[in-house]
Amino acid sequence: MGEQRYTELGDFLRSRRAALTPTSPTEGARRVPGLRREEVAQLAGVSVKYYTRIEQGESHQMSDSVMEAIANALRLDASERLHLYRLAWPAQVTRRVAGPEHVRPSVLAIAEGMTEQAVLIVGRRTDLLGGNRLGFALHGLRADQRPNMAKEMFLEPAARDLFVNWEHVARNVASYLRMASSEQPDDRLLAEIIGELSIKSADFTRIWADHPVSECLHSVRELRHPLVGRLTLNEESLRLPDDPGQRILFYGAEAGSASAERLRLLDSLVSSSGSKV
């Protein structure tokens, strides 16, 4: 696991270096996009040899100041910095026992009791753990289904039809998986999900190779629902502090909007059909 982790650290640094645009002109054409190792080393205040060793996975002992300097040189955001620190200092990552997840009954009751918004409860491996009737209906699921939402996104054609900007939503999912994998590097079940997606989905492999890292806690989603048509919904994601990795996803529309009316229509349609979509 250690060598693989440092290889991933190097891959992540190279991906962020390639994504940057030089701030000053340089002589001659560049053979590769982004910053050169020499430029990152200069910005970080370290030697080129030392930074090269880090990218090649040969330097496993980095101080706080060096890591902060590299993060600043690569212009990493908060999520990317957290990912970098987890890769660089795996001994400081808190491990959890890998196994099936269960949602607390009190949390499930909150979700099921909401009627104005669609609600889903998702686990640390993106497994669907619960939700309310409207949440299942919004995603084209039966109330008794508990799929893995990452697999649904990349492997089910219905997801591409549902989300207007599928590429953006899919990248968010891959970004979350990347963060989860660095947070829990020994989670075998999570690794199996990522491995399956890498084999079965060319789009996942393409996006994963970019090393996207972010935790999307709020967004605006555009959906094309087969029963009620176009929906513009505000998505809010709340982490459950007592159940690490679990999140409650809320989907709601602005009061008085066409989307709010369509959301109520969807709820009534599902209610009259016995919770089937």
From TrEMBL:
PROSITE patterns: HTH_CROC1. It comes from Kibdelosporangium lantanae. Residues 34-81 form the HTH cro/C1-type domain. This is Helix-turn-helix transcriptional regulator. InterPro entries: Cro/C1-type_HTH, Lambda_DNA-bd_dom_sf, MLTR_LBD. Pfam families: HTH_31, MLTR_LBD. PANTHER family: BLL4672 PROTEIN, BLL4672 PROTEIN-RELATED.
